Amino acid sequence: MNFSLINSLILAGVVQGFFFGIVYLFSPRYKNKSSRYLALLILCFSYNNLQFYLADVGLLEGAKMYKTLYIPMGTLIPVFIYFYVLAFTDSFKFNKVKAFLFFTPFIVFFGNVLLYKIWDIINPVSDVLYQKFKFVNNIQSVFSLCYTLVLIAISYAHVLRFEQKQTSTLSNNLSWLKKTLIILFGLSLFWSVALIKYLTDVNYWLYFNILWVGLSLAIYWLVHLGIYKYGIREERKNLRKFSSEKRTYTIIDKEKNEHISAMETLLINEKKFLDPTISLETVANELNISRGHLSRVINAELNTSFTDYVNTLRVEEAKFYLQHPDFSSYTLVAIGLEAGFNSKSTFNKAFKKITGTTPSQFQKQHSN
Q1: Reported pTM
Q2: Could you report the average pLDDT of every consecutive run of 10 residues in the chain (368 residues)?
Q3: What gap in Å lies between CA 153 and CA 149, rounded to an integer?
Q4: Domain that holds residue 187
Q5: Whole-angstrom Cα distance, residue 217 to residue 118?
Q6: 43 in a domain, yes or no?
Q7: Do 70 and 190 share a domain, yes or no?
Q8: Does residue 240 belong to any structural domain of this protein?
Q9: Are residues 168 and 268 in the same domain?
Q10: Which of 66, 142, 257, 277 counts the most CB atoms within 10 A of its CB?
């Protein structure tokens, strides 16, 4: 037996992965495509880590592993990463036939493993046949690596295209997903180093230990963050739907500077204040006046800055949701983002500056 701190961490990750994977897969709360693919991803990855752990500690090595528990998960994991990215960005448009094609490599390699297991039951496999099977399995390992690199690269490119096409603020800030994909791609490159060590019979266990710990952290991070981000996205969708159907905005009708009236129409009637990228310069361009002139008009007419004026509108929007009973369980992140702020910290800072209290305190005060 070869127990160590690293493989103990891997085992702990396996147990945690199976637990959360089963919860996410069967919980009614997570009955959506993106959560389902995350659940399948973590279950496949946990099983893959279990195989590595059993081999690493010496419980099931070589031929014993292939005869019993071995399943070539390496060709499944990247598929579920790619499918998750598509589902999370509402871009999963494959029919069953096209989706099935992505599983073809797994079916082929699993068929090879299954034949090996069946043959061993009928007639115990000789060393010669085992070496031939091991050769095919090495091909599978190389293919799995290449398949993973390609699908992660395609996933990253898809996220970039998705961001470029979106005009809705609902799609803001997918940097967490891009960073995770970059980390997974980097770890896959490290996998190539470990694989070369393995194929050339150089001491490779340390490399694979480092690899599996790194991949475990990245995959579990993706799963937990993915579930969290999905919840925020769904809350924002509900807030936006409510706003478009039932929320009304009123401009006080009094004599104003023409530029102020035009700005209010743009920001309030057209709801541009909800866009986190809106700025004094973009509004000035819309009104065909200079940035400096608009700033002076706002200061003179409204006795405030453009930033404070827009943030006041956003805070009023947030206050509406914070007081509404239908949204009492919604996260402050979702409410802040949907009100036009680009982060929770910016939301908290602006809200306290304008109201003298934090969003959570305000919500508690108006929850009764």
Answers
A1: 0.78
A2: 75 87 85 88 91 83 81 94 91 85 94 86 75 85 95 96 71 80 94 89 80 85 84 86 68 69 88 89 92 91 91 92 89 92 92 93 82
A3: 6
A4: 5-234
A5: 35
A6: yes
A7: yes
A8: no
A9: no
A10: 66
